[in-house]
Amino acid sequence: MASFTLRGLAQLDVDVDKLWISYDLTMDDTTGQWKKLGSIVLCQIHTDRMIHDAVYRDELLTEVDSLWLSPDGVVGLVDEQAILQAHHRLHPTRTIGTTEKHRTYLPHRLLSFGFTSHYDAMVEHFGAAPMGCAAEDIIVECDEIISLGQLGGGVQVRRGDRIIDLVDAEVAKPCIPFTRYLLGDQLTSEDNVAPHRAFLDHGMRGFIVGLAAHTEPVDIAVGDEFWISA
Predict the structure, then answer these.
(1) The CATH number of the domain where 54 resides is what?
(2) Which domain covers residue 68, as residue numbers?
(3) What is the dihedral angle through the alpha carbons of 219, 160, 108, 85, rounded to the nearest 10 degrees?
(4) How many domains does the chain have?
(5) pLDDT of 128-185, one tens digit each?
(6) Which residue has the higher pLDDT, 48 or 141?
(7) pTM listed for this prediction
(8) Phi and psi torsions of 24, nearest 5°
(9) d(Cα 176, Cα 200) in Å, to the nearest integer?
(10) pLDDT band at 117 (very low <50, low <70, confident <90, very high)
C-alpha cells in the first residue's frame, strides 16, 4: 500500500498492486477498426471551478505527471502528491458548491480532452490561445479538426497492449467568461461574445467522456496514444 499526500486535504492511500492490475484491462486486437489520432502531449487538472465572479481564471490549472481515473473522478499526480480535480466526487466543491450544478457529481462527464489542431484554429481566430487554457484534462497532438460525429463509436487511450475505453462523448460547451477570456476583454457585451462563442462550439473548445466498465483506477500520461473508432 502506497500513500500519496492529497494537496490541501487528507492523505490518499492507494494500493499500487491494484493500480497495476488495471494494465491487464486489454481487449482483442482491433487496430483495423480503430484510427490513431495522435499522442497525448499535456495532462492537467483544474483545482477549483474555473469561473469566479463571472471571470475565467486560468491560474487554477495545474500540469501533472499523470491522471488517475476511477468512477469517482480524476486525480492528478505530481511528485507523488495527489490532487483532486475540481469535478471529483470527493472535491470540496461537491459539498459546498454555490449551485446545484456545482454540487452534483456527473460520472458520465469524467474526462475532458482537446486537440492541438483546435488550438491552432483558436489562435488563428483570437490571436492567442495558450495550450490547455480551456481546462481540458488532456491535450492530444492532432493535425485535423475533430467533430463529435467522429467520436460516437468510442474513444480509447492506449499504452502498449493496455486499452482504456472512454464512452458517451459530448461537446464541452463554451461559456461566456471563457470566450471573453480569449477575446482579452472580460467586460465585452454578450452580443459581441456570441459569434466567437459559436466558433468555440461543436467541439472546438473540447469534448467530455465517461469511463467505460473500469472499476479499478487506471492512469493516463503524456505519450499515451489516443484512438477513435474508424
Answers:
(1) 2.40.33.20
(2) 2-229
(3) 20
(4) 1
(5) 999 999 999 999 999 999 999 999 999 999 999 999 999 999 999 999 999 999 999 9
(6) 141
(7) 0.81
(8) -90, 5
(9) 11
(10) very high
